């Protein structure tokens, strides 16, 4: 192990001991980087892990390759180190790459998949690229790449992470004067594949996102499921049998059924409510016993719902247990990511589906129109809780939840691989 400040061999020190070149209680540990450096001297690449004694949160900085003569980093052209930050929202984790001002070319799909690999890369549910805005109405735009290389139109947890990152950068004392004044009020406008999304970082660190109105027209979700119930001026697909109405349809779908002890003696049918929050969602309501069975078998049955023929662009699937009039429990299989700890757009779709199917009452107006103080529904996910409010006034869905910095670092991108 080598100190990243003076490159002194610190192998004789325990992990909890201090190196003599620093007066702070800092832990040093070398990070192995999967790249051959040839003639570089031992200790010319190192990593520093600073652990706060109060928060116990790691902040990692993997340093660039240093020239053996003067200790200065080599140019990105010689060794293309890509700077990134990692954020998480309720355990849904993302690699954020701010490419608005950097000299690196835009990360491609193959590189993003490699970065998301939890065994050979950094590990994440997706990569989010921050890019210059195309239109003047947005602060910047984002491109989202799932762990499997697919690109969703939107990601609720990812947008919260992006908003928190943008405001964190502005509040950083080292930020430039232009950046520090851009998002001072915590409100942003972000271009996504689903249009403009407007998040706001609250004083308590949580992020409230205006997700816009839900899309209920089956053709726009999109799904081939027929409309079954008129909601306003749209005939929405509400609790439609997902296996079809004929024996041939049921046989073609081949969706597994829960055991009799879960669904009882009556014939069980998967019923779907189709909602789009800029990306498609298949919301299925189940009772407590069936929810437990689904959660235990999600890796097996999730892909069958994701690729169901009724959703031509695949779909996210949420299994929902209604625990109370403002209380939902959710297990999710995300399109392109599989089982995740949380899904923001899925939580929004679940509340909309529960409302239009009559499983929970409509939500009331918030104080002075503020969605944060409104009659929110709490959605319990494996990673924590989200507050979802479907406004009766403008019909927009508002999502409020946490987003947290995990660490920052650099990695080597070479020929579409780490």
From TrEMBL:
Q: Which GO terms describe its cellular component?
A: cytosol
Q: Which reaction equations make up its catalytic activity?
A: (2S,6S)-2,6-diaminopimelate = meso-2,6-diaminopimelate
Its annotated pathway? Amino-acid biosynthesis; L-lysine biosynthesis via DAP pathway; DL-2,6-diaminopimelate from LL-2,6-diaminopimelate: step 1/1
Q: What is its EC number?
A: 5.1.1.7
Q: Which domain of life is it from?
A: Eukaryota
* Annotated GO MF terms: diaminopimelate epimerase activity
Q: Which Gene3D superfamilies does the annotation name?
A: Diaminopimelate Epimerase, Chain A, domain 1
Transmembrane spans: none
Alphabetic keyword roster? Amino-acid biosynthesis, Isomerase, Lysine biosynthesis
What EC class is this?
Answer: isomerase
A single Pfam family it belongs to is: DAP_epimerase
GO BP field = lysine biosynthetic process via diaminopimelate
Q: Does the keyword Lipid biosynthesis apply?
A: no
Q: PANTHER family, per this entry?
A: DIAMINOPIMELATE EPIMERASE, DIAMINOPIMELATE EPIMERASE, CHLOROPLASTIC
What family does the database annotate? Belongs to the diaminopimelate epimerase family.
Kindly provide the name given to this protein in its UniProt entry.
diaminopimelate epimerase
Species the sequence originates in:
Cyanidioschyzon merolae (strain NIES-3377 / 10D) (Unicellular red alga)
